[in-house]
Write a structure and sequence with these properties.
The complex is a heterodimer of chains A (about 375) and B (about 160).
Chain A lengths: L5 E8 L10 H15 L9 E5 L3 H4 L4 H4 L11 E4 L5 H14 L5 E9 L3 E2 L3 H4 L15 H16 L3 H14 L14 H6 L2 E3 L2 E2 L8 E10 H7 L4 E10 L13 H14 L4 H4 L2 E3 L5 H10 L8 H6 L16 H4 L4 H17 L13 E8 L4 E8 L1
Parallel strand pairs in A: 2-3, 2-4, 10-11
Antiparallel strand pairs in A: 1-8, 1-9, 4-8, 6-7, 9-12, 11-12
Helix pairs in contact in A: 4-15, 7-12
Chain B lengths: L22 E2 L4 H14 L2 E6 L4 E3 L17 E3 L3 E11 L5 E13 L5 E6 L12 E6 L12 E6 L1
Antiparallel strand pairs in B: 2-3, 2-4, 5-6, 5-8, 6-7, 8-9
Classes of the chains: A alpha/beta (about 375), B mainly beta (about 160).
């Protein structure tokens, strides 16, 4: 397949907070402006704009793509919104990649913005109608319910304990202490996680990422343009996405097959044969602590049921062999849905450039991966980045 | 049921009732908060300007949508303007008839590159002309709450 090679050349992230005074479009502006400034470009240099944002019901703004256009630099540009639920943030660079890889454009500004705090009493209310209105909604499902079922099945299948899974939350919230955007950076213990309130067993409060307001943005450029902008382009060498059945209850909950298919698509494009050797650093999506382990397995970064061993051996710590969520992840930095996924992409971008500051992992990694997951826990989105 | 038949009452088919159980608390944002605070407390219309693009925004914004430049200062404009287009509304959202027709207009705001959509007051529908000069009619200060309804409408100047 012939396409232009595409690089990330700039990035920006706002603070992630529980309730921002800014509107969603003002948050988008802040992130977009930071991304442009980081690579010395202006809107005159940007040929098209891609926007990622999760359900309209969060912000209470129907057609949120149009609403957020001005803050995202969409004024009189080829502008398009994409949306795959929680997977949106990592679909964002993929959507931008189409625009540049196709040869239609040489630059693309990619923005993700989310304002979940408008939604009262809680964004869970908006999630209610993602379930089938006839067979599921009358039971009053929440997302936490279905993740509790999935976590239980995952624990049962491989004999993993809540104590072990809690270590992911401990790790990521601690990693977030070095992230300037972080909403929930903290030093906690496994006991703290186990003693936090039970929401739907086996899920406790500290197993879960928070609802957040925030935005993130990146600038993409084709190969010949990227080399004029920066000495340190980070290449999008593989992209993949995949959707499983909407009948989530009948899916294999212990293993995310759709994530594997998305990862294999990205690996094939990037020429990766042995992901456990070649992917040196990753940001798997971690809205719940068990999901980091679950996703590591779907991404083929750990054998089935064995991600927990890498965790217990310290391999997934920031200074371990295979750092996972060195940013602090959704659990620590916060979870403004679409912006979270792009924050993860930006973390790998900064790590590969050696610009992650106090979060920098050792060993000068050359190849990393970011992944998100969403819709009715059925979509996997993956990008493989290389310097 | 054939494709040419029409179900006129949507409860004629078997149905479930449902709702999306949320309501919303919106923030003004940095730009509109400054605008509505000035309107409520001083009766002023605050604008902001991007010198690079030569565009004056009303209500004030904190960024320019054309260049994404940061707009850091605000200034007051008169709040007067000219009718750009208008319509006479006879029906409510639920299609029930209004007691009196309401004139709704786009007003080119003087000294800015923006328009307001708002009611025209103190003028009969038949007397409205495109291009006519109008001025804002504000509620009394004690009744202003910091929202678009602090402006009653625009009346002939």
């Amino acid at each position: 397949m012939a396409y232009q090679r595409v690089a990330i050349v700039g990035a920006g992230i706002t603070k992630f907070v529980r309730r921002a005074q800014e509107t969603g479009k003002e948050l988008a502006f802040q992130a977009a402006k930071m991304a442009l400034d980081s690579c010395g470009l202006t809107m005159k240099d940007i040929e098209c704009v891609s926007l990622g944002t999760a359900p309209d019901a969060f912000d209470g703004v129907h057609m949120k793509g149009e609403y957020l256009a001005d803050g995202s630099g969409g004024w009189r540009k080829p502008y398009m919104r994409h949306f795959v639920g929680g997977g949106t943030g990592v679909f964002a660079p993929i959507h931008g990649w189409f625009h540049v890889a196709s040869g239609m454009f040489d630059t693309c500004l990619v923005v993700c913005s989310e304002k979940m705090s408008s939604c009262h009493p809680h964004p869970q209310g908006a999630f209610k109608t993602i379930f089938d209105h006839t067979t599921e909604q009358p039971l009053n499902p929440t997302l936490i319910w279905i993740f509790a079922l999935e976590m239980n099945r995952y624990m049962q299948t491989y004999g993993i304990t809540k104590e072990e899974i809690a270590l992911v939350s401990v790790k990521n919230k601690k990693n977030a202490m070095d992230h300037p955007s972080a909403q929930l950076p903290m030093e906690i213990t496994v006991e703290d996680v186990l003693n936090s309130e039970v929401l739907a067993w086996p899920v406790n409060r500290l197993d879960i990422s928070p609802a957040s307001d925030g935005a993130a943005a990146i600038v993409l450029a084709s190969e010949h343009v990227a080399k004029r902008i920066t000495d340190k382009p980070v290449w999008i060498d593989g992209v993949g996405w995949n959707l499983d059945t909407a009948y989530w209850a009948t899916r294999d909950l212990a293993y995310p097959r759709y994530v594997e298919k998305a990862a294999r698509m990205a690996y094939e494009m990037a020429g990766i044969k042995e992901p456990q050797k070649e992917i040196e650093i990753a940001e798997p999506y971690d809205p719940f602590d068990y999901k980091e382990l679950h996703h590591m397995e779907g991404l083929l970064l750990a054998d089935r049921g064995k991600a927990v061993e890498m965790l217990l051996d310290g391999k997934t710590q920031r200074d371990g062999d295979r750092p996972m969520c060195p940013s602090g992840g959704a659990l620590g930095v916060g979870n403004p849905i679409a912006a979270t996924g792009l924050m993860k992409v930006i973390e790998i971008f900064l790590q590969l450039r050696g610009e992650a500051g106090k979060r920098q992992v050792p060993g000068n990694p050359r190849c990393g991966l970011a992944q998100a997951w969403g819709d009715l826990m059925q979509v996997g989105t993956v990008v493989v980045l290389r310097r | 049921m054939g494709l040419t038949e029409r179900t006129n009452r949507n409860v004629d088919l078997t149905y479930w009732e449902g709702e999306i159980p949320v309501n919303y608390v919106y923030t003004y944002g940095l730009g509109l908060e400054a605008f509505f605070r000035a309107l409520k407390e001083q009766g002023k219309f605050l604008a902001s300007r991007c010198e690079d693009c030569g565009v004056t925004y009303l209500p004030a914004r904190v960024f320019c949508e054309r260049c994404l430049g940061k707009l850091e200062t605000t200034f007051a404009v008169p709040g007067t303007g000219k009718v750009y287009a208008y319509t006479v509304v006879h029906r409510n959202v639920d299609e029930s008839p209004k007691e009196e027709p309401v004139v709704l207009a786009l007003v080119d705001m003087d000294g800015t590159d923006c328009r307001f959509v708002h009611y025209l007051t103190g003028v009969e529908p038949g007397e409205v002309k495109v291009g006519m000069a109008v001025k804002p009619v504000l509620k009394a200060k004690k009744d202003r709450k910091g929202g678009i309804e602090d402006i009653v409408g625009f009346a002939p100047a």
